[in-house]
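Request: Give me one sample?
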Amino acid sequence: MKNCNSGKRVAMFPGTFDPFTIGHESIVTRALALFDEVVIAVVNNAEKHSFMSLDNRMKYIESVFADEPRVRVVAFAGLMMDVARAEGATCIVRGVRTVQDFEYEKNLSDIYRSTAELESVLLCSYPEYGFVSSTMVRAHLVHGYDVSAYLPKKGDKTYLPSVEK
């Protein structure tokens, strides 16, 4: 596997993205400044009950980045390292909000490097997004709260997730 400095610089940003938030959008936008392409890899975990269907999550993310040709959205099940290889990714990009996030991501980074020769780039969240998580947004959305402040926007339009399965 090539390192982050050789050839086309493709990064993979894996996650459940249930739903995709402004924090996720920020990480992708910032990663585009560092890489030629960002592949957003949406986890399809049959054992986990998702709020949004895989198809809806993918369509939602594709709509957010419809005007950005350097972003691709793919689904995967199994090991992230296998899909990274298949998509030509040389690096994994992850967002870090807390010390606990860092410790978790550091361990994953060590595994990716040692088993698949994939480097990791950890981007710290902006302070104003530090509390935004899919779990928090999902909980508030389920209970009828307005979560538009935590979802991606284009102009005056907020991208609202479709939750029909």
